[in-house]
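Quarterly update from the structural biology core.
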Amino acid sequence: MAWRELSAKDPPRRFRGQRYWARPLPAFGDTRARILIVGLAPAAHGGNRTGRIFTGDESGNFLFRALYEAGLANQPESRRLGDGLVLSGALVTAAVRCAPPGNRPLPGEFDNCRGYLERELALLPRGATIVALGSLAFDACLKALAASGENIPRPKPRFAHGKSWRIGDRLLLASYHPSQQNTFTGRLTRPMLARVLRRASTETK
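Predicted structure, tokenized:
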């Protein structure tokens, strides 16, 4: 909580003069979605600034273009609140709701925010798909599913891009996170993410 507000008070020069959201971020998208996309946490000068998850940074640019190309968004960019962006069939959220220092939440932050993720999982219809972006979000999804009463497979699933697990009546899909560390190095490419989203869409029909 303190970091999100400190980031807003002392932003980089390119964002000075802008009014920051600087509060916990809600999920964004279709509340009747059959696909839940779970990221890690808001970026200090991305979602924490704009008020929308995955908005205002390169990770978001990469993700929303992929959602647009998959037919899940009506436009390829997420710029700010009120920009006309609408998601159809997808809800985007995060395991942690406040921007953490160094984009690395502490275990207590995951614990504090797990209830939000549990409630979002409860909104999903039968047969819905969960796409976890990155290993930390993947682990958070497993814990939220377990807390919701689902039986987690044994041995416990281990994160691997493109892998999937059936947990109860839901499918959990794993993808690398669209961070610049992954996208600039080619660890995650647009076709790789497109395949995951295409499978998510196909599995939920």
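The beta strands are 28-29, 35-39, 90-94, 129-133, 164-167, 170-175.
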